[in-house]
Amino acid sequence: MENEKKLGSIVSEVLNLLEDKKYIQAREALLANNEVEIAEIIEELMEELGMEKTIILFRTLPKDVSVEVFAYLPLDDQVKIINGITDREIQYILDELSFDDMIDVLDELPANLVDKILEKTPREERKLINTFLNYPDTCAGSLMTPDYISLQKDMTVAEALAYIKKEGMDSETIYTCYVKESGRKLQGIISLRTLVISEGDEIISNLMREDFVCVNVFDDQEEVSEVFKKYGFLAIPVVDRENRLVGIITFDDILDVIEEETTEDFERMAGVMDSTDKEYLDISVWKHVLNRLPWLFVLMCSYVITGGIIRTFEDGLAKVICLVAYMPMLMGTGGNSGSQSATLVIRGMALNEIELKDAGRVIWKELRVSFVIGIALSSLNFARICWLDGEGPIVAATVCISMIVIVVAAKSIGSMLPMLAKKVGIDPALMANPMIASLTDMVSVVTYFTMARVILGI
Amino acid sequence: MENEKKLGSIVSEVLNLLEDKKYIQAREALLANNEVEIAEIIEELMEELGMEKTIILFRTLPKDVSVEVFAYLPLDDQVKIINGITDREIQYILDELSFDDMIDVLDELPANLVDKILEKTPREERKLINTFLNYPDTCAGSLMTPDYISLQKDMTVAEALAYIKKEGMDSETIYTCYVKESGRKLQGIISLRTLVISEGDEIISNLMREDFVCVNVFDDQEEVSEVFKKYGFLAIPVVDRENRLVGIITFDDILDVIEEETTEDFERMAGVMDSTDKEYLDISVWKHVLNRLPWLFVLMCSYVITGGIIRTFEDGLAKVICLVAYMPMLMGTGGNSGSQSATLVIRGMALNEIELKDAGRVIWKELRVSFVIGIALSSLNFARICWLDGEGPIVAATVCISMIVIVVAAKSIGSMLPMLAKKVGIDPALMANPMIASLTDMVSVVTYFTMARVILGI
User: With a threshold of 0.80, does the pTM exceed it?
Assistant: First the structure.
């Protein structure tokens, strides 16, 4: 919070200075912050000032600062800047960016601009860049960098440290180093910690760990982030089908992945299909409509069935019209009960706390929980309907028995549907709240009116 | 997936060996895996075999392995093991654990057991442990460790590296080192990377960064994880009110926090109040009931109002009973539209993409999006109601105009309520799906029946 306020005051200070055309003072006000903060300020200015004026300010930054700030900007602002600066400036920034950040930027640029940028790149590097650009967006390959420290297994610790001192500047991380055998196959890994606390004349091959964990270049990013969470690594080696080391993924890139995957889960659970990684405010109205309309339409169709069920009870319902007043409560409570269970099971599966083989234990737990909850809510309702609403005990009984059945059914559906989805290979998150609510609504209506027919003879 | 299968086959192998009382072979089968995997297997065995037999197997592991395995086990299994081994074994494990892991375990044990364990601890360390045990559960203090590398500012790089070599073994991380001035105030930080790539005779004070970022010991863990995400740090210093360095937090502990906070958000959004960090299957039926019943009850009360509204329309409704069949669709679509907007806004705020000052832009976007969606869904419905259901165009118009109003209202409520909650200091996640659905249900019923009164004169 404090941080946000501080940022806001700097942004308005810079805005005022720019209005008075005091570019040098504006630049000084910016440079009083660290690179991460400057990036945040630039981001705000992009919104307030528009692209062109912000880029003028960005270009006044010292070259080394501008590269670091660029690296911290969101991807869409990076693309805007690339489009607004000269080819020579582009070249400078891309040369100084870390390899994986450069790939991310190139990935967003139009193909002809990428070709133009790569014209001056040496042939070997161009080939490498093109390989990286071709990895699918959500696989390990798209996250990795080829800039890692490679050691020889017959080096001594002193030699290794001297080598790291020479090469470490350009490497994404130097805290984990990799030892390859002939044919680029990964043979072992060794941490800088081990190197620093070992004697200088020890041999790498005696110190390195050969039981390392690695991921495949085409593994999904979600799997990669699971590995990171499980082991707490700083970096993980990425190998191709032939077990050759092609790059490494560092933990800071995984923080972004975790955020992305979480957002995806949230959105799927709310029935939003988001195909972009843009921010809410940057997505156009039409795109928002496209992201949301399909699910609303599918769910609406399910209500055609629910409506059809009600129509078959219409005549009886007209006779005991007071039953209608309790429909929303039964449907709502059914939906809420179901989505509680669905959320707990979906989250449990995401954290590997619940596996498919636990289905029996889950349903047994849900049955007991829902029975208790159903009884509790029904008792309260029985009293309410008889005393407050002044309906007869038979109407109250109809509502309350329905309530128990509905809560038990909703929690069973809510807990089992996500597991079934996982079993057949659909993302369980898709089976969450809206889907469960539609299903439980049908169940609620059928249960309620069937009870009414049996008890009240409607 | 592959990993899970492999694990499953080792678990059943070990189970078979234990059944045949082949303890030595079972031990060998375990030891063929790395410590993280052994921890996973032990976790499974706890479930399948029960605590006692698993602990017998655990005790056969070599001491150094058993400590590492212990560190990777979930907290509740750790407590079970502590309760099942001798005092001397407890002492050994706690001595070898990293400080922050030890605090986590002690935090879960009954006070008299902690006192007994701490009896043999030197007085200074016991004082430190007690300080750490007293930090509230979700603040920075509860995540930090006091085992960091402290350098003197007048050391040379060579002296610093020699010091790290000597002390590095017991430190949580050596990749970031800290320089304190007199009075324990943090003065600068320096990365091992800088040390390794610098010349041996350079002086620390010339190399260290003095514009470091730190957190306060009572900062909420969510704020700490935001700082990690923003800067991509490996470790962050924690200071007290007097700006004295009291510990550091490393990124692996933050991965757990992110997971915890995400789970909390998911659960709040589904109306579950989880007060434990236990796994779903380990929570008792009664605890599950307590976690879920309060919200269901609160929401159910809101339906008393909705029901009351319907009762005032009862007589008219009995005359045009076909209107009841469209109630679930209107209420359901309203709820789904609202929770889409709520989820997007809550997530946007969690990622700092949406701030309170953006309220105007958000509502303007939602109004346009909901109007388009309302028109689209209504057109489809008009056709359906007239042709498929065979109702007159006036009934169809009542439903469709209501639909547009309901979608627009639901999306406005869904987007604004979380922002309002944040404004008054309530967690926006609490305002999500069930809450929004209850509110939109009321709005839907009022809108629908008011339209029916105006258009159909019920």
Answer: no
Interchain pair A196, B196: CB under 8 A: yes
Q: Tell me which chain B residue has its CA closest to the CA of residue A199.
A: B165
A52 Rama sector, left if φ>0, alpha if ψ -120 to 50, beta otherwise: alpha
* Partner residue opposite B288 with nearest CB, options A174, A331, A369: A369
- Comparing CA positions, the residue from B68, B67, B38 lying closest to residue B54 is B38
* Best residue of B165, B296, B301, B449 to probe chain A, by most A CBs closer than 10 Å: B296
- Cα B231 to Cα B226: distance, rounded to the nearest angstrom: 9
B61, amino acid identity: L
Residues in chain B with CB shorter than 8 Å from the CB of A302 are: 332
Chain B positions in Cβ-Cβ contact with residue A285 (cut-off 8 Å): 365, 368-369, 372
How far out from the chain centre does Cα A423 lie?
Answer: 22
Phi-psi region of A3 (alpha: psi -120 to 50; beta: other; left: phi over 0): alpha
Alpha carbons B326 and B312: distance in angstroms, whole number: 18
Encode chain A (458 residues) as per-residue pLDDT tens digits: 455 667 778 888 888 888 888 888 888 888 888 888 899 888 888 888 888 888 888 888 888 888 888 888 888 888 888 888 888 888 888 888 888 888 888 888 887 778 877 777 788 888 888 888 888 878 898 888 888 999 998 999 999 999 999 888 878 888 999 998 877 889 999 999 999 999 999 999 999 998 889 999 999 988 898 888 888 888 999 998 888 898 999 988 888 888 888 888 888 877 787 666 678 888 888 888 988 888 888 888 888 888 889 988 888 888 888 899 999 999 999 998 998 899 889 888 888 888 898 999 999 999 999 999 999 999 999 999 998 888 889 999 999 999 999 999 999 999 999 999 999 988 888 777 778 888 899 999 999 999 999 998 87
CA distance A174 to chain B (A): 7
Rounded Cα gap, residues B164 and A382, in angstroms = 71
Q: Which of A165, A322, A433 sits opposite B314 (nearest CB)?
A: A322
Q: Of B133, B135, B132, B134, nearest to B146 (Cα)?
A: B132
- Helix-helix angle B123-133:B99-108, to 10 degrees: 70
Residue numbers in A near B345 (CB within 8 A): 280
ipTM of this model? 0.75
Instruction: With H, G, I as helix, E, B as strand and everything else as coil, classify residue B411.
Output: helix
Say what angle helices A2-19 and A23-31 make with each other, to 10 degrees: 160
Q: Do B270 and A234 touch (CB under 8 A)?
A: no
On chain B, the residues whose CB falls within 8 A of the CB of A327 are 310, 324, 327-328
Nearest-neighbour CA in chain B from A395: distance (Å): 14
Range B397-402 contact pairs with CB under 8 angstroms and sequence separation of 24 or more = B397/B455, B398/B323, B398/B448, B398/B451, B398/B452, B398/B455, B398/B456, B399/B323, B399/B326, B399/B329, B399/B330, B399/B448, B401/B451, B401/B455, B402/B330, B402/B444, B402/B447, B402/B448, B402/B451
- Rounded Cα distance between B451 and B331, Å, is 14
Q: Report CB contact under 8 Å: A434, B336.
A: yes
Instruction: Walk across the sheet containing B235-239 and list its strands.
Output: B215-216, B235-239, B245-250
Cα distance from B243 to chain A (closest Cα, Å)? 17
| Residues in B touching A437 (Cβ below 8 Å) | 332, 335-336, 437
Can you tell me the distance from the alpha carbon of A257 to that of A222, in angstroms, rounded to the nearest whole number?
Answer: 7
**β-bridge partners, A123:** none
Contact between B336 and A271 using a beta-carbon 8 Å cutoff: yes
**CA–CA gap between residue B449 and residue B402 (Å, rounded):** 9
Cα separation, B280 vs B286, whole angstroms? 13
- Cβ of B280 within 8 Å of Cβ of A345? The answer is yes
- A115: distance to nearest CA of chain B, Å? 31
